[in-house]
Amino acid sequence: MATTFENKASILADLWITYDKDENFADFMEYNDLGLPLAYSIANGIIEASDKAIGFVEEAFALLLSGLEQEDTGFETLDQLLSQE
User: What's the confidence (pLDDT) of residue 56?
Assistant: First the structure.
């Protein structure tokens, strides 16, 4: 089972807010300087997801999984994803 788009946006939003100053995520935050705020805005109902916004969020989530060396097993929260390391 893959992570739903809503959960991807929520996980990335949580990561962006919680780990924005964490040196371990510095390169990830810098590279995803558009995808993360888009994910936050979508997750919090500030904007509706357009096709372009969905692309940025999907890319950011795929990069997060790759960086953590995780397979997408249907994550629901950031804590769940990070506890799989």
Answer: 98
Task: Give residue for tokens 């357009």.
Answer: 50
Please give the span between the terminal C-alpha atoms of the chain, in angstroms, as a whole number: 18
Q: Please state, in angstroms and rounded to a whole number, the distance separating the CA atoms of residues 41 and 71.
A: 25
- One-letter amino acid for residue 82 of the chain: L
Q: In terms of pLDDT, which residue wins out, 39 or 84?
A: 39
**pLDDT number for residue 1:** 85
Domain ranges of the chain: 5-82
C-alpha separations of 36 from 1, 4, 10, 80 in Å: 23, 16, 10, 19
